Amino acid sequence: MYDLVIIGAGTAGMTAAVYGRRAGREVLVLEEKVYGGQIISAVEVENYPGIPKVSGYDFAEQLFKQAQNLGAEFRYERAEKIIDQEGEKIVVTGRQEYHARTVILATGAKNRPLGVEREEELTGKGVSYCATCDGAFYRGKDVAVVGGGNTALEDATFLSGYCRRVYVIHRRAEFRGEARLLEALKKKEKVDFLLNCQVIALEGEDRLSAVVVRQTDTEETSRLEVDGLFIAVGQAPDNQAFADQAALDAYGYIEAGEDCRTKTPGVFAAGDCRAKGVRQLTTAAADGAVAALAACAYLTERSA
Length: 304
Hints:
Elements: E1 2-7, H1 11-22, E2 27-30, H2 56-69, E3 73-75, E4 79-85, E5 88-93, E6 97-105, E7 109-111, H3 119-122, E8 127-128, H4 131-134, E9 142-146, H5 150-159, E10 165-170, H6 179-186, E11 191-195, E12 197-203, E13 210-215, E14 221-225, E15 228-231, E16 235-237, E17 267-269, H7 281-303
Parallel strand pairs: 1-2, 1-6, 2-3, 6-17, 8-15, 9-10, 9-15, 10-11
Antiparallel strand pairs: 4-5, 5-6, 7-16, 12-13, 13-14
């Protein structure tokens, strides 16, 4: 029997583990793949208070070690559902069941696909969702980045250090990413901007060889020969398995307030999986702390 079972080992989940252990609670963290979450692929993190600059990998590694050294247990299994049984939570994975007094959902969000035909087929064969993971494979080649937020701008900046030419494709005339990132990117000689454009088709037999782009205002189409396409059009949550325990909004995010409490007593939500206006590293860490302390307070109330 664990006091806290945390589903997800991103920044929110591991922060919750740190706070749970510091409160003297038995903590288990379940992670489907690898600890770290989305931040692990960031080349540089420069907006976390007190740390001027750090790689996403190093940040995640240090947070993992902190939680592990405090005694948090980590297991790499996908949580498939939660059963609420007379106040006790049973977390079911593909391997076994774990019993807990509280559960914190910190499932984060996954890369959102572009939704173009053959996208899945060509993933890993020219189509990628992680520039820092795959960028080095395209050294001296032409690539394109799709998106208008910080991730797209950061990906294009990173790729400009490896690639011969980087095309930034955005469906609008203005970017929603930070102005300083955009201004820095505009100074790169290797970078071209294709605004008011959408990728509507992918070409290539065994690998990507070109993308077809359509102007959103004129409907004109053109063909752009590239070896790689990096998709950075946002994230999507993966919370459907827990919809009976935690209400979801129209976009699939968990409905929980700033106290991180869901509709089910003893079930909390933290990080990017939660419905909220700002999703940053700092807010994920804040959610993890709030959710863990709320879970500990819930346990104290029940035992009183």
